[in-house]
Structure formats: C-alpha cells, structure tokens
Amino acid sequence: QAVVTQEPSLTVSPGGAVTLTCGSSTGPVTSGHYPYWFQQKPGQAPRTLISDTTNKQSWTPARFSGSLLGGKAALTLSGAQPEDEAEYYCLLYYSGARVFGGGTKLTVL
Amino acid sequence: QVQLVQSGAEVKRPGASVKVSCQASGYIFTTHSIHWVRQAPGQRVEWMGRLNPVNDNTQYSQKFQGRVTITRTTSASTAYMELSSLTSEDTAMYYCATRGDYGDFDYWGQGTLVTVSS
User: What average pLDDT does the segment B76-98 reach?
Assistant: First the structure.
C-alpha cells in the first residue's frame, strides 16, 4: 500500500500564509490521484476543504486553495485566522483505493 | 437535506466482530458510493473501504483486506461495515461518508465509537 506523507506540524502567524504538502511513496502526485484536503477539529469528523486537487466546497473559506506543487499536492492558506488551527489531512486515490496522509497539525500563533 | 445516521456505540471482546450501520436519507441511495473511515484515539484518519450501491462493487484498503466487509440493504438505504477478529488496536471512531455536489466526502455520519476490551 502506498504511503502518503505530510508535514507533522506547521506554525503560521495570524494573517500569514502557509503551504501544506502531500507526497506519495509511489512517485509524483498528479491530478490522477484526485487529491482531497480535509480539516479536522477536536471531537469533530473531518470536513472536506478541497476535492480533485483544486475544487473548493461551498463552505470552504476563500483563503484556502489547492494545487500541485513540485510533485506534491499542496494546500495553501493565505491570511490565517485563529479558527484555522486544526489538523489537516490529505487523501489520494490509487486505482480505486484511497489513502490518507498522516496529517499536519497547524498552529496559528 | 442529506443525512447519514450511524448506529450506536459498541463494546466488543478481542476476537469478536462488529457491524456498524449507516442509514442514508435525503438523496437516492443508489446514486453515490459510501465510504468508511476510522480514527483511533489520537491517531490519524484511515480509509477502510467503499461500496458502490449501484453494482455492489467494493474496494478495501490493503490494511483491512480480509477483515472488513461492506454491504448494503437498498430497501432500507443502509450501508454496513463489518470488521472481524477485533483487537484493542481497532478501538476507534468509525465514520461513513458519501458524495455531495462537490466531492466524495461531502457528507459524514456522526460516528460510531467501537471499543475493544477484555
């Protein structure tokens, strides 16, 4: 089974920008992996922020965006807010199966 | 309004099996796959598998292959996830999720806590 890697933790200042990445043990991440990004806060189910690399859900704040960057999927947060402090997971598609990354704990400080 | 309502918490002995249900409403059950995801306390989220209710096609994570079975009862708009040979490492919150207008995981059940303890 493929291994999906994320930064374990990142810190961003309020109003600042940060990019979270999502890599694959099988090689470069492409649009064919249909990358998803989820936000999870304590005690809650994950919530989709980005689907299929770049598509935002109706509830996704405009400050979040998805892309492919240097062979990885990327989630960029521009103008961080205190409420963005959470765990972020990416999910990749492998011929029908899906694999989550290990998650990135984002601190807004 | 799409809703996924899961069955209640379970306590199981090691070696037993557990079957969690996920009842869907607010959309035509056969139009979208149902995914199952779990999260052990303080651990990462894990994708377990999915069922396509149109053709009963299933796909499972290699990690759970042979231990997990996802089924459905279309007349009840309900999907089921059964996990066998439970160990303490299977103690986790189990979620079902389905597609909305934007992606495959737009709607989530409330979660079912499964505790495995002797």
Answer: 97
